[in-house]
Amino acid sequence: KSGFISIIGRPNVGKSTFLNRVIGQKIAIMSDKPQTTRNKIQGVLTLDDTQMVFIDTPGIHKPKHKLGDFMMKVAQNTLKEVDLILFMVNAEEGFGRGEEFILEKFQTINTPIFLVINKIDQIHPDELLPLIESYKEKYPFKEIVPISALEGNNVERLLEQIKVYL
Ligand code: GDP
Ligand code: MG
Fold first, then answer.
1. What is the pTM of this model?
2. 129: which of 90, 94, 144, 166 lies 20 to 30 Å off by Cα?
């Protein structure tokens, strides 16, 4: 099995930390070179029977006036072409305007989307279930997966769930 996975989410939600954890420091740093007009491969994870190609979708979280029509098209086409989208949010901060903006974009694509709630180490366990329930109302996510990219909680499980969609 192999497939392309786009990780999106606003700055600081933990995208690079997640990639570093699953792929390794070296590759994630290499790919941090600025490359704004096309999608970049951030890393490739090769497991026994599966290859996951993680790609960046630059600027999708930015409002249209900041991004420009061309970039917005590129970003949206990418989302249509990948096998799976990981939409990462911060457990502490939840949905802001940036997230609502991305949700609108999701309405026009058929690609399966996982909501990845990162930084669960920063919230009380009792807060998690209500959080998940509130996100279920926002969009028909295929999966809602709470993780801590920093501490590694649930990351293996997320990879298993990704496999199913490749
Ligand atoms: P990106 O901009 O989405 O790539 O976010 P980064 O991966 O650069 O992470 C931004 C900050 O959040 C860094 O200081 C990370 O150490 C921190 N961070 C990322 N994941 C977690 C997590 O699961 N828990 C906590 N507590 N901090 C995290
Ligand atoms: Mg980053």
1. 0.89
2. 166
